[in-house]
Amino acid sequence: MSELLAHVRVVIAWLPGMLAAPAPARAEVSAVEYYRPDDRFAPDTNAARIALAQNHAAEQLSGAALAEDFDATWQQVERLCRAEPEGRVVRTRHGDPMLLSEFLLTRVVEVAVHGLDLADALGREPWLTSQAADLVQDLLLGGPDEAPTLEKLGWSQIHFLRKATGREPITEEETVEVSRLGIQWLTLG
């Protein structure tokens, strides 16, 4: 679990450097486009992300120190982001110029899906705030008007998020229905 917390800390900790850097002239990538299938989610890249989290977790003296570091990190990021003007553009570590609001949506995705992972690791029912679940669902389905799609699939919101993020397998029948409904999955690491 410490490695998972370290990973979530890393995905949030990119922000101070991004905000300190000069802002690109304009946003060119949305949150959906951020999750396009390219090198950023290739097996080697995913392995490097896991190793980075493992190294960060190993550097901590105890679980309490990691938790304190995470707490300080998210609070710093929140302060920095709140101070930014609407329409602020940042450059991601992948080189994508994005609106800060769109990049923050990708961080909600990261925290939400890893919250599902944490629930699995603890053997507990998955949980998400309704706001996070709605944001991730809207991103994955293309907007809030697509909620009836879940009814057509017979999936709860959590069930959908688990399937859409590869945390639960999709049956052949479900794959056919997903295709018929025109749902496009994002590429997630």
UniProtKB/TrEMBL annotation:
Residue span, Mycothiol-dependent maleylpyruvate isomerase metal-binding domain: 3-119
Protein name: Mycothiol-dependent maleylpyruvate isomerase metal-binding domain-containing protein
Gene Ontology MF term list: metal ion binding
Taxonomic lineage of the native organism: Bacteria, Bacillati, Actinomycetota, Actinomycetes, Kitasatosporales
Classification via InterPro entries: DinB/YfiT-like (IPR034660), MDMPI_metal-binding (IPR024344)
Domain of life: Bacteria
A Pfam family matched in the record: MDMPI_N
Record-linked SUPFAM superfamilies: DinB/YfiT-like putative metalloenzymes (SSF109854)
